[in-house]
């Protein structure tokens, strides 16, 4: 479906983008705004919630110390954020649009059509969706060719990865343009050449999440056990090496081949229950109560600050603060 060529669907090349619009300014839209501001862009933002402006500024202010310690682009400032009264004002002069509205298919469909109508021709519009295929979201837009998925990870101002993919009616040039733009804006990009259910990282996370919920539901593990099992175990390795190379090392000098010979048969062992569990009230309450217990009196803001400090330490320790191709 897509070529790997980077062309410029609009009038601006990815390297020359200066103005970005963030539409939907909650956890993710706000995180994107903080990221783009730290990279020196002018950011316009719109969100229909009555308290959206102050909420967004609080989020950006909370992220700014972490971003400052990572290093701001020249000229980067929170003063370059403008919260607009209308969606149309937010995108009128935008050279790239990042949509981060609630995960509801009808809402995304209507919103992307509205964004397409209001955004200058050729400007690429990306959706932060966690899993909807763009093919299903682009059906109401007059020009679906410039609509792509740009799936971030929370918080977008610290976690480098963005997964980029188009829909059946997306122009390959828009996918290539978006991938290059995210790279210039300091992200690590995986570009998919066709739609994959759950993209890549969420498909993997979902498998883990389902198993975790099954274990809580059946009393096999507590919420604390599950979190510890990752933070004190595989999670430490995964920040350095992915699950494939990590397991290759499980084969010693024989590498992955020996690992497969040795442990391949255990793939068939009845360990997993990948059917989604029923998210009934009992399971829901157990997961929420377990997280409250694990927070041990720390507020969400405390936890966010703790997570941000930890992620920065990991990025520093693994030499990933300055990535190749990161020109801002
Ligand atoms: N929370 C997460 O960890 C991640 C979420 N995402 C995706 O990001 C998107 C946004 O999710 P969150 O920020 O978590 O949700 P959120 O609930 O924190 O924020 C959504 C924002 O959208 C606003 N909104 C409501 N109707 C709107 C409309 N018609 N147009 C524009 N904005 C509207 C709301 O007022 C709210 O501020 C979703 O597509 C989600 O799947 C992607 C990666 C991670
Ligand atoms: C919970 N979530 C499915 C919305 C998470 C993501 O989409 C990505 C992330 O931040 O892990």
From TrEMBL:
Pathway: Lipid metabolism; butanoate metabolism; Amine and polyamine metabolism; carnitine metabolism
SUPFAM superfamilies per the UniProt record, alphabetical: 6-phosphogluconate dehydrogenase C-terminal domain-like, NAD(P)-binding Rossmann-fold domains
Record carries keyword Oxidoreductase: yes
EC number annotated for this UniProt entry: 1.1.1.108
Binding site for NAD(+): 24-29
Domain 3-hydroxyacyl-CoA dehydrogenase C-terminal: 198-281
Cell compartment(s), UniProt: Cytoplasm
Catalyses which reaction(s): carnitine + NAD(+) = 3-dehydrocarnitine + NADH + H(+)
Gene3D superfamilies, A to Z: N-(1-d-carboxylethyl)-l-norvaline Dehydrogenase, domain 2 (1.10.1040.10), NAD(P)-binding Rossmann-like Domain (3.40.50.720)
Span of domain 3-hydroxyacyl-CoA dehydrogenase NAD binding: 20-192
Subunit structure: Homodimer.
Family: Belongs to the 3-hydroxyacyl-CoA dehydrogenase family. L-carnitine dehydrogenase subfamily.
Function: Catalyzes the NAD(+)-dependent oxidation of L-carnitine to 3-dehydrocarnitine.
Protein's name in the database: L-carnitine dehydrogenase
Classification of source organism: Bacteria, Bacillati, Actinomycetota, Actinomycetes, Kitasatosporales
